[in-house]
Amino acid sequence: MITPEIIKKIRFENKLSQNDLGQKIGVSHYYISMLENGKKPITSKFETKLKEIGLLLPEKEETDLDLEQVTKLYIKFRAGDRQAGDLLEEKICLMKKILDTQE
Q1: In the CATH hierarchy, which top-level class contains the domain 4-52?
Q2: Which terminus of the chain has fewer Cβ atoms in its 10 Å neighbourhood, N or C?
Q3: pLDDT tens by residue, 36-65
């Protein structure tokens, strides 16, 4: 579970305003402020969104699932699914980011 301090750290490390982060996640800057100040609970849905956009690195078990997802997306992409290709690119970038932090 992430804390309000972690949300602030993620935001500052990525040079994002509360408004910027809110737009990426699909919430208001006010909601981000409430989370960062501990006035609203941080939900698992919010944490998942941070992981989906690559701002919060997943745990190892989730990374293994990502590899399975990448394989499925690649198969769909090879069959002509352009949307799968876009998702595949996002997943590969996230996995590269994870590997870079482990070196």
Answers
A1: mainly alpha
A2: C
A3: 999 999 999 999 899 888 888 665 445 555
